[in-house]
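RETRY 2/3 - previous attempt timed out on the joint model. Re-submitting the same 915-residue input unchanged.
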Amino acid sequence: MAGKEAGVRRFLLQQKYQRTGASPTNAQTASTPLDSHLSAAEQRLRALFTDCEDILFRPLGQWGLAIYCTSLAEGDHTLEHLMTTSSPVDPQALKERLGAQAKAVQSYEPLVAGILSGSTAILVDASPKAWLLQGRQTQARAVSEPQAEISVRGPRDGFVEDRAVNLMLIRRRLRHPALKVQTLYLGRVSQTAVSLVWIEGIAPDPILTEVRTRVGRIDLDLVLEGSTVEEFIEDHPYSPLPTINHTERPDRVTAALAEGRIAILVDGTPFVMMVPALMADFMQTSDDYYQSFYQSTLVRWIRIGGLLVTMMLPGIYVALTAFHQEIMPTPLLLSTASAREGVPMPAVVEALVMQLVFEIVREAAVRMPRQIGSAVTIVGALVIGESAVRAGLISAPMVIVVSLTALSAFILPNYSFTLAFRLISVGLIAMAGTFGLLGILVGEIALLIHLCGLRSFGVPYMQPLSPVKFASWRDVLLRLPLFMLVRRPPWAQNQQRMAKGQQPAPPPGQGGASP
Amino acid sequence: MTRGRLGALTLALVMLLSGCWSAKEINQIAIVLSVGVDRTDDGQYVVTALMANPSNPSAQAGGGGGGAGSSSEGGGGAWIVGATGPTFFEAVRELAQAVPRRLFWHHFETLVLSEDLARQGIGDLLDVFTRDTEVRRTLHMLVAQGNLFDIVGATPILELSLSRQLDGLIQNRTRHSHTAGSDLAHYMRAHTTNRTAPMGLVLIDKPDPAGGLGLSPPERIELESTAVFWQNRLVGYLDDRESMGALMLQGLLRGGVVSIPCPGEPDRQITVVIERGRSKLSASVQGGRMQGDVALDLEGRVGEVHCTSLAMNPTTGDQIGRLFADKAREIAGAALRKAQTELGVDPFGFGDALYRSNPSAWQRISRDWPRAFTEMDVRMTAKANVRHTGLTHSPNPIRR
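RETRY 2/3 succeeded.
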């Protein structure tokens, strides 16, 4: 008896999932059968929930007991009805009264898990089964427009903190039985629900197996956000570059699923992760597919330019002003020289200081309460920009370079990707300050080697650029019209995604004369 | 820490050991833009260097004397310093005594030579400009007619420094085509053939017509005419017209204007704007005598018409073209005559043409070069097209 009790208690703190990854869905692998005597069961559960003020035990006449968590679930009409029923009922009738959502359980572990996720447990005397009634939805943020990913033309709904709502948003867009969902619970204490979502027949099986294995072997106490999971399942945890994408937009996840990616939903965060995530994915937005393909192609090239500027501009500026004045055109050299006249620091120090100052301003703007946020702008722009130049501490071209670098960074859609390149740019400044353009070249080569070696769940990070897949360039370097994007990414199953030859045209035989 | 990571860290630290190897901050260099060189009677080089003055680019800063050298006034946005020495390099190091920064020669654009030095020979001087790693072959060589230091110390107009002004004058020389010289690379290429005489640009300090009215300083600097060198010595000049002729013969004409008489009205003129000119030079040896052939092909447009009655139509268009071609032959002929009779060297490339078409004939004639050039007969043909008449037709309604 005592051993059994300890077993249930251990359930909360020592729950572990099978390491095989074969079936991570079912968290309730351990099982302690229910006591058929109501009093024994009640005693055991009361011991488990000692000092849990929000767990309520309500007797149902003489025949049963209802247990629920008041902070998660509210008492429900069915329950009121049951409480007025004084005589024991036969199981069949009880099931009818409880309705279709009621779930029968036969052991303690799912029962406790159910209570702690908002269900009402109904225990019946002299029965080996208990019933779990799905609780009513408690407080959740309403679906609203995503704050971090604005779209000009596109759906305005965004994910919320509730995983069930998020699943609803995805399922509503993919009404097909091939959309599969598998949920497991991570965190010994938090018991956070984590769902894997994919489309069978499109998502490649090896990648799916890999995701299951990696997620399944996570063993920690607390999962607060998707990033907690992300750090445990990345291919290259030490790389500054993200290999897992995340978004707040259900349309984006839907599109990713249809391309063969696997979505990971974590309860408690509005960010849904998508794998595999390649370099090209971090350079795209959902708007790319909602606006004219000319516009999208242009914007994609602007982003590529922005990426290069973010990464290299400060370094190149340092290399030019400290090493290679000879390759600047004479008028540019003369105006740069007059702007730098009297600046006490070498260009490399100046660049590093300004980059640091910008990071301080950025971090301050993010952390500052909104009411005094404008103070940051004033201090940043006026004090640092204007006064430092006037005082001759910083040269004006350096302020321009750093501002341009910062602006270019903000046109990249993914924040963590941008931060990685800002970090790389600091490295390149140091290289430029040490060896000039040669240093930049060496740094770039090292970066390219790193990029080409990266994998996201086994898929090369630089694909389709390296290894080269020309067919995919039409949706990476360009964005061709949708009717030409017939194929899925090269690593997906079932390559063809639509019928060919759907290019629209005016009706034939009209000779161009329209009424 | 694994062995690999330790190795990577060590490598990274080793990189830092080098410090900022060969870094030279932009405000630690003195950007030399122009240099003036003269030679005293006792063989000393007098060098003046014009450096950008970045701390006050619009200032009218006068130069300070350096070493044992001379100084001069003017040079806004720039600073002029001078020094003397037995060689150019020694003079420059002498000059460095007065300059608080490292002299930076990569942006050295214009070299101004005094006429005396040019006549004495510039071979020794050009050695350093072709040997030094910092000097570019795009350097332009100019010969100062008149006092070198008046020209080098002149007050710049429109630009912040004289050097920028000279650069602008050089860039804009195709507007008038009154000078035929080019940069150091072209000079070297011509010189090393031993056939073609290199040409340089000429700077002249001239009275300014507007100066007489009190509107501007009384003198101004002009870029015009061409200095012709042979074996690194200045042998003479081609004037404005002859310089245009030299450009025609070389096929390098890209602009400028010529005036031709109106058909039927010799005292009135049409000004033709040259769009471009091509040429085909060839040379042969017949009976020990060199024979040159020139075919000019020009294109232009009508710029100004003083004729009282000229209806512009295809016939008169052809007529103007023929007159233009005649004029071109006259201009090119003048240049050729000057070179053959007064200068005695070939700046146009007839020798090259012969060498390319018939190397063995060149071998025979090279012993007698450049005298063979002065005795050469030249057949010149010219054809010209006048394509546009501008925004109005002729006769222009405004003249009725």
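Residues 314-343 of chain B form the longest helix (30 residues). Closing ticket.
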